[in-house]
Amino acid sequence: MLLIQPTGEMSEKIRVELNENVATRDKDLEIIKEWLAKQPHLPNSFDDQRLMTFLRGCKFSLEKCKRKLDMYFTMRAAVPEFFTGRDANRPEIREILNLVQIPPLPGLTKEGRRVIVMRGIEKDVPTPNVSEALKLVMMIGDIRLNEEQVGVAGDVYILDASCATPAHFAKFTTGIVKKFLVCVQEAYPVKLKEVHVVNVSPLVDTIVKFVKPFLKEKIRNRIFMHSDIKTLYNYIPREILPEEYGGDAGPIQAIHDVWVKKLEEYGPWFKEQESVKANEDLRPGKPKTHDDLFGIDGSFRQLTID
Q1: What number of other Cβ atoms are within 10 A of residue 261's Cβ?
Q2: Rounded distance between C-alpha atoms, residue 234 and residue 125, angstroms
Q3: Pick from 62-66, 226-230, 252-256, 278-282: least confident
Q4: Burial of 33: CB neighbours in 10 Å, binned 0-12, 13-18, 19+
């Protein structure tokens, strides 16, 4: 199963957390649809389900939802290295899929959060193309936008550092990390709730120090280091974890293979989506520049994390 959807009591709990009112959500959706139709610089091709996902991710704040949607389409034009050539059968992406596993897990935590594992398979291999790897993360994000029919209460990431080496880390430049973090946090509608790092090493401290200047205090306090895998179970139930982490959900390779197949199936859709992006020439007022989006070179643009 690709993604288990929340039902019953969990679904109701998530609805409360996301400020979703069944009596008013359709009206909110119509307001967003009318707004989007009036934006000359933005595509108007989203179906109701994806727009509702944006509303949920913004806790039904109409103004936040408008900003998030604008940023989603703007990023697709501003960072073509992440949003073009999205074909799982391309050699560059196929190489990454053979070296890295980054699957969202089917199950949810008791809070209704989706858990995503990121891990390398082999330590002694050259670093794959970083832009292509980060592109793959957002390809999965777009599939989730299509496939998750009910809201989830945020994302939890498990970063497995067992295969991380200084040579791998050296390929992550300030510019590429900045663009990636702005994309995933300001353009996608699911909130980052926790980051759990397992199989830690001294290199992990260096990586965290490198990333922290991009982040506000709230997200810094959501990063947890685990020198013992057992402490991870205080946050994520073992029944949804892969067996490599002492869980009951089967081998991670099987979960990864399901996602690889789904990525392949989405090939034609990804190709169609390359034209779905903002047109800065048509934006009312001043067009968004690179500095507006990512900050002046040499400085950090802190992310707004609700």
Answers
A1: 12
A2: 33
A3: 226-230
A4: middle
Q: Which residues pair with 197 in a beta bridge?
A: 159, 225
User: CB of 97 within 8 A of CB of 63?
Assistant: no
Measured CA to CA, the distance from residue 25 to residue 19 in angstroms comes to: 10
Task: Quickly state the pLDDT bin for 244 (edges 50, 70, 90).
Answer: very high
What residue type is assigned to position 116 of the chain? I
**Amino acid at site 64:** K
Contact indicator for 189, 229 with CB cutoff of 8 Å: no
CB contact burial 116-126 (16+ within 10 A = b; e otherwise): bbbbbeeeebe
Q: Rounded distance, CA 219 to CA 61, Å?
A: 21
Q: Which of 113, 227, 99 is nearest to 164 (CA)?
A: 99
User: In this structure, are residues 195 and 224 in contact, taking their beta carbons and an 8 Å threshold?
Assistant: yes
Query: pLDDT for 179-215, tens place per residue?
Result: 988 898 889 998 889 999 998 877 777 777 777 777 7
The answer to which of 38-47, 199-208, 289-298 has the lowest mean pLDDT is 289-298
